Amino acid sequence: MKRRRRFHIQPKHLFLILLAICVLLIASTSYNTFMTHSIQGGFSTVLLPFQKGMNRLGGLVYGKIGSIKELYGVMEENQKLQEEIGELRRENTRYQLQLKELATYKELLKITDEYPDYDMVGAHIISKNSGNWFSTFKIDKGSRDGFSVGMNILADGGLAGIITSVEAHTSTVTSIIDDGRSVAAMAASSGAPCMVTGNRLLLQEGKLDVTHIDKDDDIDLSYKIVTSNTSSEYLPGLLIGYISDIDKDTNNLTKTGKLVPAVNFSRLDTVMVITTLKRTEG
Amino acid sequence: MRKPVFYACVIAAAFLLQNNLFAAIPLIQTTPNILLVVTFVTAFIAGPKDGMLVGFFSGLLLDAFFGGSVGFYAMIYMAIGYVNGFCGNYFYRDFVTAPVLLSVLSDLAFGILVYFFGFLLRGRLAFMDYFISIIIPEVVYTALITCVVYKPLLKLEERALESSKRSAKRFV
After folding, report:
1. What's the structural domain count of chain A?
2. Do residue B20 and residue A55 have CB atoms under 8 angstroms apart?
3. Among A155, A206, B107, B150, fewest CB within 10 Å belongs to which?
4. For B37-71, what is each residue's pLDDT tens digit?
5. Are the C-beta atoms of residues A228 and A238 closer than 8 Å to each other?
6. Contact between A201 and B129 using a beta-carbon 8 Å cutoff
7. ipTM of the complex
8. CATH of residue B32
9. Pairing mode, if any, of strands A182-187 and A224-227?
10. Whole-angstrom Cα distance, residue B119 to residue A190?
């Protein structure tokens, strides 16, 4: 006969055992990345199809909520718009001319924003780290698609993050807004170096820290900040964002500021992965 | 239904809900900590041992997916499951008040632990700012989710526990 109570373990002993396992895991994974990757790879492969389904569901729910909200808004606005139509018709002709002008400008912008030297592959975001503390997410392509650790991620034409671990069919991306993650950067116009660092508290305002600016360097409000040539992980010349605040430090030697990233991180859906890696040696 | 299978299903469902459904809806800025709800409800109903194990595996799943070092979340969730396991003896299970209170306390503890190990040790000292802008919203959302989820989860878990007890009896 099979006995159900083969062994009985006290809760506090189990607690100590699990605690020991945790400590061991933390210790071993912070020294040995191979183990981390094998554990992560196993879990990812199993859960991938479910996640894709859930994402679609999430999008659907959001779409429904969005459309109901929109309906109310539209009904209210309809009345106002009826009155405005007459006025708008007159202005329409004028705007059409301006629109044509805008199209030309956009065409010009596109050329400067492109990065022609780099090979890029698109990928979908399948899961975001729900914890409210760190900013990482998963994309639906991995080492089988030729991805590897250290590849840069673009979205909306700006730098979004970097691949920090790769499994067979997925990869984990740490975004540049992750607390404590730094990018060596420079001002696009003057070449003055600085350091862009993620800060969880500033993220509420949608901004990042900019530090290590020499007090005489030419960096000021609304300057365009791009990745620097000296960065060990990021390819040079990728757009990060624009300076929004700048102040002299109390030590009177350096300046610090804030930066508004070019990427809208709350609405990320698809990203471009640059398969060209930054070469630091050879 | 056997207990481990049931727990595995609940954890997987909570994980997917938390990291895919809620994270994919951009209207919600703060995501509730559903894995934490599952952990402490299990602990509350089934005792410290089950709570601890469910917490451990929930945390491990999170670690395996997103963590820098595996074991960080596992440790925190496990500790919360363990402590909550003892509370089941002292409170009524049929009212939602005690679980909501516990969820608030657990999520506060969770936030403070993550802040301590993940932020304070890196020299981020503005605790009050983190407390107000990150921990409090998460606590509120998690408490709300607890109100909604507690009763159905209680029913489910009780049924699962009963059936596993019954199948255990059959073998004796």
Report:
1. 1
2. yes
3. A206
4. 999 888 888 888 889 999 999 988 888 777 667 78
5. no
6. yes
7. 0.72
8. 1.10.1760.20
9. antiparallel
10. 34
